[in-house]
Specification:
- The chain is about 55% helix and about 0% strand.
- By secondary structure, it is mainly α.
- The longest helix has 17 residues.
- The protein is flat and about 60 Å long.
- The two termini are about 25 Å apart.
- InterPro entries: Anti-sigma-28_factor_FlgM_sf, FlgM, FlgM_C.
- Belongs to the FlgM family.
- Keywords: Bacterial flagellum biogenesis, Repressor, Transcription, Transcription regulation.
- It holds the Pfam family FlgM.
């Protein structure tokens, strides 16, 4: 994919444009005027989301930060690559 200096995708790679029929435009316009949607989250939903959220482990972060500062933090590129591949497979399968 080629991107020009403006950060926009080049026109050659854009999605094809379909011309809308007058009837389609009129139908969509009349339907949109009489249709509205809303979303609400209950307090029970918020409580459940808070329970399932993982806690931030400040001690672990501090230990990693200290190891990096001391030059003792070891990076395992094979484990990183394996995790990336597993995540990609999971995304493609689902």
């Amino acid at each position: 994919m080629k991107i020009d200096n403006s950060g926009k995708v080049a026109a050659a790679y854009g999605a094809p444009v379909r011309a809308a029929k007058k009837e389609d435009v009129a139908t969509k316009a009349s339907g949109a005027a009489s249709h509205s949607e809303s979303v609400a989250i209950s307090s029970q939903g918020l409580a459940k989301a808070a329970q399932t959220a993982e806690a931030f482990d400040a001690d672990k972060v501090a230990a990693i930060k200290a190891a990096i500062a001391a030059g003792e933090f070891k990076i395992n590129p094979e484990a990183i690559a394996d995790s990336l591949i597993a995540s990609t497979r999971e995304l493609l399968a689902g």
